[in-house]
Amino acid sequence: MTLQIRRLGHTVMLALTLALVSTGLWAQTKPKVQSLGLENPTSAIYIGNSFFYYNNSMHGHVGALISEGMPGFKHRASSATISGSGFDWHDVGSYFRQGAIGSYSFGANNVVSFNKLDKLFDVAVMMDCSQCPLHPQLKDVFAEYAKKHSETVRKNGGLPVFFMSWAYKDKPEMTEQLAEAYTRTANDNNVFVIPAGLSFARSIAARPELDLYAPDLRHPSLAGTYLAACTTYAALFKKSPVGLKYTAGLDAGIAAHLQAVAWATVQDYFKP
Q1: 25 burial type by CB count under 10 A (0-12 exposed, 13-18 middle, 19+ buried)
Q2: Which among 14, 100, 137, 203 has the fewest CB atoms less than 10 Å away?
Q3: Per-residue model confidence as pLDDT tens digits over 193-212
Q4: Number of domains present in the structure of the chain
C-alpha cells in the first residue's frame, strides 16, 4: 500500500510539473502540418548523423517501443547516417534505389532473407547537422536541401518528415531557434515535424538533474536517445508511450518521466 501511494504521489507530481512546463515557454511558429497523413507507417528510413546513431541507433529504440505498444504490427526501419553530416551531404535519391537498402536481412542462424519490396519506405525522417539550420553560412543550404529532399522523397512515394534536433547543453537558446527554423521550413514545404528538441527542453525544465547529454554536451546520453525515440513514436503514430515497459535499460522512474515528457510535448506542439 505504501509503495502504491508513493507511486501515485510521483505520478501526480509528474503530471503537475509537466502541466506547468509547457512548450509555450519557447515561443514558436505553429506547425501547418498537424498529422503525418498516413496512419501507422510500416517502414521508415532515418537520414542524418551521429545524433541518430548514438546509443545503438535511435531507430532501434523506436522499433522496440512499436513492438510493445502495437503488438503484431510489422514495422521495418533503416538508418542512413554520416558523422557530422548536414542535409546536403546525403544523396537521398540513392536511398530509394531498388535492390539496395533493405534488399536483404539476417535471420536465425545467420540465414539471409532476400526481401521483395514493392515500396522501400513510407516515411523518411531527416535531420540536418546540429547547428546547420542556424549557422549564418549554412542556414540557406538547410532551406535549399530541405526543399530538394522533400521533393525527392515524395517522388519516390514516401512522406518527408523533419526531425527537430535539440540545443547544445551549454547553449539552451538554441531550443527556440531550432524550433523556429524547423517549423518554418517544414511549413514552407508542407512537411511533418517531430519536435524532439522541445522534448529535451521540457525535460530539462522539469528535471534539470537528469542529464540528457553525452560528456561533449552535444550528443545524447542514453536517456536523451530514449526521449527522442519516445517523441518519435508519439509523433509518427499518435500514440502515447506512457506506461510502456521498454526502458532501454534506464531506471523505470526515469523512463516514465521521459515517456510523459514526450507525450506532453507532442500534444502541445500540435495543439491548434
Answers
A1: middle
A2: 137
A3: 999 999 999 999 999 999 99
A4: 1
Is 134 a domain residue?
yes
- pLDDT the model gives residue 85: 96
Beta-bridge partner residues of 193: 162
Global pTM value: 0.90
At residue 7, φ and ψ (nearest 5 deg) are -65, -40
User: Could you give the residue ranges of the DSSP H alpha helices within the chain?
Assistant: 2-20, 50-53, 58-69, 139-155, 174-189, 196-206, 222-237, 252-269
Three-state secondary structure call for residue 93: helix
Q: Which residue has the cell 498537424?
A: 34
Q: What residues make up the domain containing 202?
A: 40-269
3-state SS, residue 142? helix
Alpha-carbon separation of residue 171 from 131, 174, 175, 176, 177 (angstroms): 11, 6, 8, 11, 11
Q: What is the mean pLDDT of the chain?
A: 91
Distance CA 35, CA 150 (A): 16
Tens-place pLDDT, residues 143-174: 999 999 999 999 999 999 999 999 999 999 99
User: What CATH number is associated with residue 236?
Assistant: 3.40.50.1110
Q: Residue 44 contacts by C-beta under 8 Å, 6 or more apart in sequence?
A: 59, 62, 75, 76, 77, 78, 121, 122, 123, 124, 125, 236
Q: Mean pLDDT throughout 238-245? A: 98
